[in-house]
Amino acid sequence: MNEVIRRVVIRGRVQGVGYRAWVDHHARSLGLKGWVRNRRDGSVEAVFEGTEDVVVDMVMACRSGPPSARVDDVKEEEAHADTSAQRREGEAFSVLPTI
Fold first, then answer.
1. What number of CA atoms fall less than 13 Å from residue 3's CA on the CB side?
2. Fewest 10 Å CB contacts: which of 26, 74, 83, 99?
C-alpha cells in the first residue's frame, strides 16, 4: 500500500462547531497520523498521513464535516514528512494551537 501525506485547508463555518474535535476523532479512528488546527483567518488546517485509500476517504469526509459545520471549500495538496511531524511528540494525531 502506498503511504501518502496530504495537507488540507477547510473553509466555511468550521470554527466553533466542533470541527477540530470531529477531525481528531475521525482521523484517530482511521489510524491516521498528522494534526489539525484552527487558523486565525477562520479556516481549519489539517495534515493526514497514511495509506492512500484511507487518506482519500478522510479528505472526502472533510468536505462534509460534523453536522453543525458548513464546508464551503477544501483545498488539498501534497505534503512532506516534516509537515506531518509537527504533531506533538508521542502522539500519532494531534490538535495543535491556532496559528
1. 9
2. 99
Centroid of chain to Cα 53: 15
Indicate the pTM of the whole model.
Answer: 0.96
Q: Could you tell me the residue range of the domain that residue 79 belongs to?
A: 3-89
Catalytic residue among 6, 7, 13, 38: 38
pLDDT at 14: 98
Q: Quick one: average pLDDT of 15-24?
A: 97
Residue 37 forms part of a structural domain? yes
Q: What is the mean pLDDT of residues 25-41?
A: 98
Q: Tell me whether residue 38 is one of the annotated catalytic residues.
A: yes
42 domain-assigned: yes
Angle at 57 between CA 81 and CA 96, to 5 degrees: 45
Active-site choice (20, 28, 63, 87):
20
Instruction: Please report whether residue 81 resides in a domain.
Output: yes
The set of residues, in sequence order, having a beta carbon less than 8 Å from that of 1 and lying 6+ positions away, is 51, 52, 53
Neighbours of 4 (CB within 10 A): 16
